[in-house]
Amino acid sequence: MLKLIKGIEVYSPKSLGIKDVLIVGDKIGKIDDEVDILGVEVEIIDGKGKRLLPGFIDSHVHITGGGGEGGFKTRTPEIVLSDIIKGGITTIVGTLGTDGITRSLENLYAKAKALEEEGITTFIYTGSYRVPPVTFTGSIMKDLILIDKVIGVGEIALSDHRSSQPTIEEIKRLAADARVSGILSGKAGVVNIHMGDGEKGLDMLMEIVDTTEIPITQFYPTHVNRNPYLFRQGIEFAKMGGFIDFTTSSDPVFYEEGEIKASKALKKCIEDDLEDNVTLTSDGQGSLPKFNEKRELVGLQVGRVTTLFKEVRDAVFDGVPLEKAIKAITANPAKILKLSSKGYIKEGYDADMVLIDEEYNIDTVIAKGRIMMKDKTILTYGTFE
Ligand SMILES: CC(C)C[C@H](NC(=O)C[C@H](N)C(=O)O)C(=O)O
Ligand SMILES: [Zn+2]
Ligand SMILES: [Zn+2]
Questions:
Q1: Whether 283 is catalytic
Q2: What is the pTM of this model?
Q3: Catalytic hit among 283, 314, 350, 363
Q4: Which residues are recorded as binding Zn(2+) 2 (predicted)?
Q5: CATH no. for residue 182?
């Protein structure tokens, strides 16, 4: 069934002005000032007063749930499709976290397949917080080369009391293996690094970049906005050509303790001309544990994927141009993860799109040409929702 979005302001992310956009199957067929389909049955979507954005890419979501830092009862719940759609997310990368024992890669894979069957695009990281990493096949290289959904390794914890305290040699080898298997399989092979609050911060990654041939872009550090010191280091890392990722799920208590709100971190990077080096991810369904200075757990929240666009929207309301702000959840993750048909409103690309209304609220979500939400009404729920 053909769909035609009429007279909509297109942000590809770059602003293209008012256009008609024709969707043919699961692809973007045509973008032009005027597209007329004479004599063919087509579903018209009125774009007047709305803006069209590429579907959002959230490259760090605990789709099978995570947590556990407060014992079994704090294992967080798995994600449901409707939350993903409400967040305008059409591509998601699933990850394990602290608990790579009761949470399995096989379960992560099955959930990614389930979400794909329900209509969105999914990938996963092999591994979890710990080194040596959990794998499907016993080797991250075989996982990356042989399992299509595996596009990288993560989230590998550094500078955190919950990490496996990996040596620099272990991280070098892991990044080298991810890089070579990415090259051999035409994938990104990025290492998604969980940055904790430890005072060494990004030091280990900086040393690896300084002392080996591994390019800085092999690493994809997240939670870089979690404290001012790490944020400053992250800006330096980005100025060296690295990618940095800010977490949008948060809690007011974290801001009081120095976490930089993701929208502010994004604004600062764009002001420092680093708009191509930065992404936002939600850490959805992951735990947001709060530890006291003795590292005792004193609180735990659950991350939400709906915070992803909320932080982009806050950045826009804070003066960041829309076409720059949305790159952090569309074109940039697509580039970092080497998703060649995603992240842009371009002819021949996947028909993953979000329509927002005049107040920048998500109004309609289209994933691979299928309308998942229209006029703020969810049309497609998860199988058991
Ligand atoms: C960035 C902060 C606020 C949250 C962050 N979450 C995770 O890393 C995921 C979590 N450990 C899980 O396995 O579900 C953290 O714990 O540091
Ligand atoms: Zn993490
Ligand atoms: Zn996480």
A1: yes
A2: 0.98
A3: 283
A4: 194, 223
A5: 3.20.20.140
